[in-house]
Amino acid sequence: MNVPERTRIFERLERCSELEYILIGDLRDLLQEPRNEETDRWILAVVDVLLETLPEAMQLKSDGGYMADILEECPRCAEQVARLQREHEHLVDVLRCYRDGLRRRRRDRATELRLRAGLREWVDAIVAFHHAENDLMQMALNEELGTGD
Question: Which of 4, 13, 115, 135 has the fewest other C-beta atoms within 10 Å?
């Protein structure tokens, strides 16, 4: 891959990451609002955009293999990288299920409470996923540079 192409990919990934960060914050805020039609529409809109952004970001990260640079520097991290990739796929699948639930117009109060609680758990899980991803990158960087033991 040539340098300009790689730069474009990094720029797209950065935009996806920034949008994802904003959307996750918005979703968290919306879930704290009282339920009404307008809030429900916004939650669904945010979830829809997240479901476009999350797979695109993963595809960009996977160009050449998910965390290929990390695996090159830290081959023993292969199991952790595979686990993170599976976890990301699972998180996207779970969010799709919540979106399907949000699209149903008729929901009783118990279903609504479960959806909102589930979405709050999902937000916590995606944040934890990003922390785990960053921790793994930091560990690989430390191995590459040496930790000065």
Answer: 4
